[in-house]
Amino acid sequence: LQSMATLYSIPALAGKKAKQLLEKYDADNNSEISTDEFRMLVDDESIPGVMAVVLRAFAKKLSSVAGHVSSARTRDEMAQAVSSYLMLVCVKNLTKVGWVAHSLTNGSLPLHLTADVLAQLALDEGGPMSLTTVDVGAYVMDQMVAMDSGHVAQA
After folding, report:
1. How far is CA 39 from the centre of its chain?
2. What is the pLDDT of residues 85-132, one digit of tens each?
3. Cα-based distances in Å from 4 to 7, 20, 71, 100, 131
4. Phi and psi based region of residue 150 (left: phi greater than 0; alpha: psi -120 to 50; beta: remaining)
């Protein structure tokens, strides 16, 4: 929760508040907030309107990434933009990550772009765009290998 507070600029979750909310809503005591637990947490009276703040911050980050995608002129710039998109979207929507993985694997995009995206994901792991504890590069690679390991090996 503290990293989410930093990521989405939510001062109400700074300090001890995140720990208090985790203790209150982590029903299975696994130190993680499930989807159901998160739904209850965002309705907590002590942090009114937190979901709106999260959605605005996510939209702002997504808009920034979209700007990078639309302005990309080289394959490297496109690979960086796709990697940034995957890093951001992996936090929210694994279906979209699967769609991008499919496009990178099915031969509809140049093989060199696929290779550059994979390399960029490896470079971005744990960096400032990393919004999750999930290894996004490994997740995308696993998706791609499951779809077409031969294509991934060529990349």
Report:
1. 19
2. 888 777 667 778 888 999 999 999 999 999 999 999 888 877 655 555
3. 5, 15, 28, 25, 8
4. alpha
DSSP code of residue 132: S
C-alpha separations of 62 from 12, 81, 85, 91, 153 in Å: 23, 11, 7, 12, 30
Nearest to 46 by CA among 17, 26, 6: 17
Cβ atoms of 81 and 68 within 8 Å: the answer is yes
pLDDT per position as a tens digit, 48-80: 888 888 778 778 878 888 888 889 999 999 998
Report yes or no on whether pTM surpasses 0.70. no
Check residue 153 and report its DSSP letter.
H
Question: In 8-135, which ranges are continuous DSSP H helix?
Answer: 16-25, 35-41, 50-71, 75-92, 94-105, 111-124
